[in-house]
Amino acid sequence: MAVFVLDKRSKPLMPCSEKRARLMLERGRARVHRMVPFTIRLVDRRMEDSVLQPVRVSIAPGSKTTGLALLRDSETVDATAGEVTRTAGVLMLLELQHRGQAIRDALTQRLAFRRRRRGNLRYRAPRFNNRTRKEGWLAPSLQHRVDTTTAWVARLRRWAPITGLSTMIHRFDTQRLQNPEIQGTEYQQGTLLGYEVREYLLEKWGRQCAYCDAEHTALTIDHIHPKSLGGSDRVSNLTLACFPCNQKKSNQDVRVFLAHDPKRLARIEAQRKAPLQDAAAVNSTRWALWGRLRGTGLDVEVGTGGRTKWNRKRFSVPKAHCLDAACVGHVDAIRRWQQPLLSIKATGRGSYQRTRLTRHGFPRGYLTRNKSAFGFQTGDMVKAVVTTGKKVGTYLGRVAIRASGRFNIQTGNGLIQGIHHRFCTLIQRADGYGYSWTKRALNKGDAGMGAAYAAALSLPGMNPGVSRAN
Ligand SMILES: [Zn+2]
Question: 64, 165, 179, 367: which is deepest, by most CB within 10 A?
């Protein structure tokens, strides 16, 4: 995993390798700027004197987890064919875990409590209409997804010289499917068009077998009116069938195959004629994200879900949110994707509700006005070196403060309770996210970020102290 590098005025330079970062720290040419993601600041370099290559952030938006990949593209132009081949070199893989459900739960609870509190007032006629919603309004849990993703793009721009963005809006390319030139075996697996057609059919037919409604099974593309009887290859003649149904139907006409079930036959006939646009479910969150990304002024490339899947299969890359991100858009090859990933979990910044309530809405206790205790705040990343007592050892993780001074530390190996504040050193201020470095290493490589991090901590006189938030 690459290390972010900043110049002496904190302007982003090209990310470097962990080894290089370690050497520069040892030689005193750099300072630790931030622990996670590991960022160093060169003391003697200015951005103006450095050579920067194009760096791209590629995004695979998801409902619970959004994959992000930091890529360095190298393009080679084939002079004879006039084609540009783009090879994406992976610099860093990140996964952002959203907290949409937590937001939804909190707001639902607030609504219930408020109803209980105010429900016994007498009825008053509304004085004005305060129920209008602005255009482009998203539910708070969805808005959060857009906000955190754009916030991370902005952060990455502060740490690396980002020149372009890639994201996904649609699952398939409607324009491409409308092309009447779809012929022969073109829709089959293996081609880009095949993947686009498949994504389209999955969306249109609700990810189930058209003949028996089987879900969560391998679905094959089926000609409603078989080709042997003159059926066309147009997408309007295609549906999805499970393997047994596909075998049973074989090259019968759908009217013969479904003679015993006229209702289903009518439904399939109606559904297959549905226009393309109706099947293309517009994902408002992805649209909103795309709008925000365009607002950055950078080039925003848009890929489809079908293309991402096609790329992933072509490059034999396993399924992971961050690797999906690396495969978004026009990519012809991908390098160095076998690396650990940084998991980023949106944790929020605590509750503003001063009164804690029980499940039944009765007050249970009060949050203190003061969010910090003994110089620490819940969410801070701390290192605790415990020298006495039962819990002797070194712990690194996210702290939850207690007024008593005995803190809890959430480490990679579980929760450690009752650590006295005097054992704790601040590593990084809370920024609304929890980090884990090697939660899911994609290969058996070294500890990635952990190694550079550990090396920095062990350097003599290299206590990072309080790094600046963000
Ligand atoms: Zn079936």
Answer: 165
